[in-house]
Each structure stands twice: as structure tokens, then as C-alpha cells.
Write a structure and sequence with these properties.
Layout (H helix, E strand, L loop, with lengths): L1 H11 L3 H21 L4 E4 L3 E4 L2 H9 L6
Antiparallel strand pairs: 1-2
Helix pairs in contact: 1-2
Amino acid sequence: MDKLIKKLAKKYNLTEFKTELVIKSQFGLLKNVIENSNFKSVRLKHLGMFSVKKHRFKYYKDGKKRKV
């Protein structure tokens, strides 16, 4: 990951810190959408579709373990 950040920082004439923030910001947004909405799916351009299975989403929202 560090090599990618250095390469992109050099290419776009940015600091490595700012480049890392740009890269990580999309995952922060994804986390925010999952936590604060009725999450069905989210598409991140060039990375794909992210979705959660219904029973996993319920576990995530309720914080409860499923009985086996």
C-alpha cells in the first residue's frame, strides 16, 4: 500500500498524507453508509459492489450473536 501511495502522490503532486486520506476516505464513507442507513448495497467506482447478507446486517445493527 505504501508503494501505491508514494506513486500516486508523486504522479498527482500531493503529499503522501493527503494521498492516503483520499484513498481511505471512500472506505470511511462506506462505513458511514452501513452504520447510518438501511444498507442494501453501495458501489465504489473501480472497486465494485459492497453488500451485506441480511442475517449479518441484523447482527451488525443489533450487536447480538446468532444462536447455533
